[in-house]
Amino acid sequence: MKLLICNWKENKTLKDAMKIKRTLETCVFHDVRMIICPPYPLIPVLHSTKYELGAQDVSEYKNGSYTGEVSAECLKSLDVKYVIIGHFEREMYFLENEDKQLKKIMNALEQNLKVILPIGESLMEYQLGKTKTVLEQKLNTILKNIPTNYRKNIVIAYEPIWRVGKNLPLNKKEIFSTIIDIKKWMYDNQYPNNPVLYGGGLSIEDMQKLQELDGFLLGNLSLDEEKMCKVIEKLQSSTNVYKS
After folding, report:
1. CB within 8 A of 188, min separation 6: which ones?
2. In terms of DSSP bridges, do strands 215-218 and 154-158 run parallel, antiparallel, or are they unpaired?
C-alpha cells in the first residue's frame, strides 16, 4: 500500500475543494492510500470514502483560551486521522521550535492521531555533507522519548528543504541512501515498521522513479486534481512495505 500525503498548505477555497473532491471520487484507488491535508475550515466538507483527512498542524495546548488554535481533540472529533507536525515552513515563518513540536506530537498521539513528521536539511547542510547528521539529530531530539505504545502512529517524511517548490534533477541514489539511513535509525530505536516517505519538488515522473518507496509527501502537485488522478493511476501496481 502506497501512502500519499497531500499538503494543500494555505491554498484552495470551498468551491475549489468541492471540485477536487468530485474529481478524486471518480478515481480508482487500489494499493494507494491518500491523505488530504487541507486548510482547517475545509476539513468538514471533504469527507470521502476514497481518501482520509489530515490536518497541517495542531495546537501545542490541549484546550483553553488560546485564540486561533485548534486542539487535537477537535481534529479527532472531525474524523481527522493524520496531522503534519514540524514542517520547516512552521519553523521558518512561525518560529516553531522542537519543544513546541514535541508538545504537539504528544497531544496528537494521545488522541490516537497519526503524526507525519517532515525532516530535511538546508542547501548548505546538504553541500557540506551533513544530511545524515542533521536528520539523526532531529530524530534523536523528537522521537527518542516517545512512549513505546504510541510509536506505531509515527510517519516520517524526508523532505530536503532546498528542493521544496523547485524543479531540480532527481538523484535517486542519494535519496535511497538517505531513506535507508532513516529506516536504520528507526529500526534501531524501536520504530521497526514505520513508513518513511519522500517529498520535495516531485513530478509524476519522479514518483515513478521512486516507486519502491513507502509513499510521498506532496505539495504543489496535490493541488491539481487531474494530475493526482494520474499519480494514483501510475502508482497502482507499485509495491512497498507500508502497513496501516
Report:
1. none
2. unpaired
What is the tens place of the pLDDT at every residue in 133-167?
999 999 999 999 899 999 999 999 999 999 998 88
HEC sequence for the chain:
CEEEEEECCCCCCHHHHHHHHHHHCCCCCCCEEEEEECCHHHHHHCCCCCCEEEECCCCCCCCCCCCCCCCHHHHHHCCCCEEECCCHHHHHHHCCCHHHHHHHHHHHHHCCCEEEEEECCCHHHHHCCCHHHHHHHHHHHHHCCCCHHHHHHEEEEECCHHHCCCCCCCCHHHHHHHHHHHHHHHHHCCCCCCCEEEECCCCHHHHHHCCCCCEEEECHHHHCHHHHHHHHHHHCCCCCCCCC
Per-residue pLDDT reduced to its tens digit, 91-120: 999 999 999 999 999 999 999 999 999 999
Residue numbers annotated as active site: 87, 159
User: Could you give the CA distance from residue 161 to residue 124 in angstroms, rounded to a whole number?
Assistant: 10
pLDDT tens-digit map of 228-243: 999 988 887 554 433 3
The dihedral region occupied by 81, where left means phi > 0, alpha psi between -120 and 50, and beta the remainder, is: alpha
C-alpha cell at 112: 490516537
Whether the Cβ atoms of residue 173 and residue 212 lie closer than 8 Å to each other: no
Confidence of residue 33 (pLDDT cuts 50, 70, 90): very high
Q: Which cell numbers hold the place of 182?
A: 532513516
Q: Using only C-alpha atoms, what is the Rg of the chain?
A: 17
- Share the mean pLDDT of the chain: 94
User: pTM (2 decimals)?
Assistant: 0.94
Q: For residue 86, is pLDDT > 70?
A: yes
